[in-house]
Amino acid sequence: MLSQNGQIEERIDVAYTAHAAVDLDRHAASKSWLTGVAADYPAGHEVDAHHHDRGQLLYALEGVMVVEATRGRWIVPPTTAVWLPPRVEHRLLMCGPVRVRSTLVAAAVARRLPRSECVVHVSALLRELIARAASLSVDVCATPHGQLVAKLLVEELRSQHPLPFHLPWPADEQMAAVCRTLAADASHPFSTEEWATALAMSAKTFQRHFKTATGMSFGRWRQQARLQGALDAILGGRPLLKVALECGYESHSAFTQAFRRHFGAPPSKFIDQGFRASLGIRSEHSRTGVVR
Q1: Would the pTM of this model clear 0.70, i.e. be above it?
Q2: Average pLDDT of the chain, as a whole number
Q3: How far apart are CA 32 and CA 123, in angstroms?
Q4: Angle of helix 124-136 versus helix 144-158 axis, rounded to 10
Q5: 101: which strand partners?
Q6: Surface-to-core class of residue 10, CB atoms within 10 Å of its CB (0-12 exposed, 13-18 middle, 19+ buried)
Q7: 48 near 78, Cβ under 8 Å?
Q8: DSSP 241
Q9: Cα–Cα distance measured from residue 243 to residue 211, given in angstroms and rounded to the nearest whole number
Q10: pLDDT tens digits, 167-214
Q11: Residues 111-130: pLDDT tens digits?
Q12: 3-state DSSP assignment of residue 64
């Protein structure tokens, strides 16, 4: 179906009951070097940790999802997609109803794409290529048309630059426990000294361990976690001032400045209804269905 803005949309009339797991064996065995996956999930649904022998591009056609991998965590609105190289373990969490469209890329071709996990901008062209590939499932390259879709999709993906949506996740269990707490509660009040005391170490030792485990300082990581959580809350329709206060900012202006520096746009842009509609984000009563 063609939308008012000329984009291809899938019509979903099937009421959501339960999501059947994607048959990954079919994708792994496919002769097509690129395959597509379409799956719709309800709010709060989690996909347990798993990995693929192929690389994967994860995209939410509608809604917002969280992708957690061994080395990072991303909040993914419909302007972006997460690229995962082959065999990277990851899990998914749906923030509201989410329509996931994904492509799996054979390892030989994935070598031409980023070697580590990253978030990329989804252009209008890339969005339609992902949707088309997802509709073709395991038979993307079965026809000359499908082969052109697959080749253009890879070339378009290669042209995108990584975005600052990545939140590095430590393997060290002590530091991971701190990160889990902060990711769950953006306004958690503990200072560096208080975290150090809780872990029975000096503040200097805590800072050193945290930077070794995540690649950034505790203060920078906490700010990035707060901003990612703020993006999710804003897209969910929460009042901007309330989001700013919950994220530990003392004023609307301080929050807006930090948000703009990180995401390249003020939070007001994500509140704009026209912009939200262009992302496929609905304020309420979103229809969901299962696409196989």
Answers
A1: no
A2: 81
A3: 24
A4: 140
A5: 38, 59
A6: middle
A7: no
A8: H
A9: 27
A10: 888 889 999 999 989 888 877 889 999 999 999 999 999 999 999 999
A11: 999 888 888 888 889 999 99
A12: strand
